[in-house]
Amino acid sequence: MENGIPKKPRILCLHGFRTSGEILKKQIGRWPESILRKLDLDFLDAPFPALGKSDVEAFFDPPYYEWYQRNEDCTQYINFEQSIAYIEDYMVTHGPFDGLLGFSQGAFIAAASPGMQAEGVAFTKVPKIKFVILIAGAKFLGFKFGQPKLAVNAFSSPVQCPSLHIIGENDFLKEQGMVLLESFVDPVVIYHSKGHTIPRIDERGQETMLSFIQKFQMI
């Protein structure tokens, strides 16, 4: 609370694979004003330009970025550690942030971040991450068999960090998203009927999200 007015939670937003902070801003901007006016959102571009074609080229203009690269069978991750350091440096310079929001590749990172912080291998220079909002996310170990070395123990213990998961019934990552739920102590879930996308939030979803956000307006 600030002067009796609920504080807007400050959230660092991590976009999906081969998109951008600006694209994520436009996608999130479709959410109801009742939600957006309660949040202070900061959209960060990943540090690496896209190395291939983007799936959103027909809908959004470039530039496009990616957080890390991996080989075809998901056993090797490239530039993951550099991306985590880049995100942490941004949080130090532009923070403090209360929580993280991620979509797809950004959600993979956001999901692992509280565990990496608890392990003391990343995000040691910033305050404790209070919550995460994960859209179309999964954990690295749940996506085939590989995982970045920095995140190897991110889910070794139940994640105490409050989490809101937005899962599409027709998302190719739905099953992995359901597995991710089991890693968090008290996950809150919003389901939608679409696929691997950032959905519009219906009335029921609004109620769920506003209830989740309200917990952090008092901190």
Automatic annotation (TrEMBL):
This is Alpha/beta-Hydrolases superfamily protein.
